[in-house]
UniProtKB/TrEMBL annotation:
This is Probable periplasmic serine endoprotease DegP-like. InterPro entries: PDZ, PDZ_6, PDZ_sf, Pept_S1C_Do, Peptidase_S1_PA, Peptidase_S1C. Might be efficient in the degradation of transiently denatured and unfolded proteins which accumulate in the periplasm following stress conditions. The keyword Translocase does not apply. The keyword Repeat applies.
Length: 465
């Protein structure tokens, strides 16, 4: 009797264990097998960044030439800087999505498929604000992914990443969605991506790779990790597929992305403000400033208003507003729900085009490419205060765009660099920059000093006739 009960107990435990496993641990082998052929490895080369040997110490310079080679270390061979990342094929004719930071500044982009075929890729377009880039390889009949609806994603859902962490080809990792709509401003304090947060193990090399739901659909593009060691600690962030599809469509159509713009300064609503304004709880975006002549000013939005909905979408915290506005095509008229002096109102606003959009400022879209960025082929602006504090830089101008083939590009400048000196003149601000550039001579090699990630760098630049 005891033996028979024990047998029944064992069978019962196995059944319960199987049920729990079926509900809690999804079977991923088929998903990974079907989608891995559409995931690619990306290797880039940046010839503008070279490893440089050090000058010999002073005491070695005084030694006779015949003996000096015995003490001098061998100089390292100069090599272009290489980097790697991941991407995924979105169409059978060779269009590939990856992160902007994977290919930004690269002279050569090489794509490797799962069957080891390699292709040189053309960069169709890049978008710094969303950290997305669209590539094209000359191939046909390729395996492609299916887009999913990231708007339907919920916290707790299982997701799968496939990519090349640390260069290890086609590695898969799984986890759950930890949070939705994370606001993470970039170095320019811009915030146009409502990131998906997951606990999936994402490491360097995974950037640009796909994040799948359990239906095998891409619902995100792995972009960032939070780390203290350089590796995964369970905080990774992906760009939602809903945003990515719109960006990719614009990059394919015109090589740039036009974003909606309102023209307001905002902050979160605290408990006291919510009570004073007649809100049941803190929510919405408090308008602190409205710039003259902007879409917000023309629509009648005023300082002190609390925007609660925009185009029908709820604004829970102030970071939600740029996410929503940025995805609306310029020229579209949308409703704005707000609280003003304790009363709700609805206004209509015609969304403008964000000045300085990546690829080209909207206002300059009709200008010939030769005129973009002036004599250097570089679009610059004042440095945001947050970037000054982060990199401990007090003066200079921030590079927003570098036109390929122009002097700035040949000198190795990139978006995000801070120009501090041109020729032998210091550049303190935009006024200095315009004045100095105007006086630069042609056909002469001139020094240029700029900061990249807080590090001062000297190069040379030449303005050709």
């Amino acid at each position: 009797m005891v033996k028979r009960c024990t047998q029944y107990l064992i069978v019962f435990c196995l059944l319960v264990s199987g049920a729990v496993s079926a509900r809690g641990l999804p079977e991923l082998t088929e998903l990974i097998e079907e989608n891995s052929p559409a995931v690619v490895k990306i290797n880039t080369v940046d010839r503008s960044r070279m490893a440089r040997g050090n000058n010999p110490p002073q005491y070695q310079q005084e030694i006779p030439d015949i003996f000096r080679h015995l003490l001098e270390p061998r100089q390292r061979q100069q090599r272009p800087v290489a980097s790697m990342g991941s991407g995924f094929i979105i169409s059978e004719d060779g269009y590939i999505v990856t992160n902007n930071h994977v290919v930004n500044g690269a002279d050569q982009v090489k794509v490797t498929l799962t069957d080891r075929r390699e292709y040189e890729a053309e960069v169709i377009g890049k978008d710094e604000r969303s950290d997305l880039a669209l590539l094209k390889i000359d191939a046909e009949d390729l395996s492609a992914v299916r887009w999913g609806d990231s708007e339907e994603l919920q916290v707790g859902e299982w997701v799968v990443a496939i990519g090349s962490p640390f260069g290890l080809d086609y590695s898969a990792s799984a986890g759950i969605v930890s949070a939705m709509g994370r606001s993470i401003p970039n170095e320019s304090r811009e915030n146009y991506v409502p990131f998906i947060q997951t606990d999936v193990a994402i490491n360097p090399g995974n950037s640009g790779g796909p994040l799948f739901n359990l239906d095998g659909e891409v619902i995100g593009i792995n972009s960032q990790i939070y780390t203290r060691s350089g590796g995964s600690i369970g905080l990774s962030f992906a760009i939602p597929a809903s945003l990515a599809q719109d960006v990719v469509a614009q990059l394919k159509e015109k090589g740039r992305v036009d974003r909606g713009w309102l023209g307001v300064g905002i902050r979160n609503v605290d408990r006291d403000m919510a009570e004073a304004m007649g809100l049941g709880k803190p929510s919405g975006a408090l308008v602190e400033q409205v710039s003259p002549g902007t879409p917000a000013a023309e629509a009648g939005i005023m300082p002190g208003d609390i925007i609660t909905r925009f185009d029908g979408r709820k604004i829970g915290v102030h970071g939600d507003l740029p996410h929503v506005v940025g995805q609306i095509r310029p020229g579209t008229e949308v409703p704005v729900d707000l609280m003003r002096k304790g009363k709700s109102q609805r206004l209509k606003v015609i969304v403008g085009a964000l000045p300085g959009s990546d690829g080209e400022p909207t206002q300059a879209a009709s200008r010939p490419a030769s005129s973009i960025g002036g004599r250097l082929g570089v679009v610059v602006e004042e440095i945001p205060d947050g970037m000054k504090q982060r990199w401990n830089v007090d003066t200079g101008v921030l590079v927003k765009q570098v036109v390929p083939g122009k002097p700035g590009a040949k000198a190795g400048l990139r978006s995000g660099d801070i120009i501090a000196q041109l020729g032998f003149e210091e550049v303190a601000d935009m006024k200095d920059y315009k004045s100095v550039v105007k006086e630069l001579p042609k056909d002469e090699l001139l020094p240029i000093r700029f900061f990249r990630a807080g590090q001062s760098t000297f190069r040379t630049i030449k303005i050709e006739s």
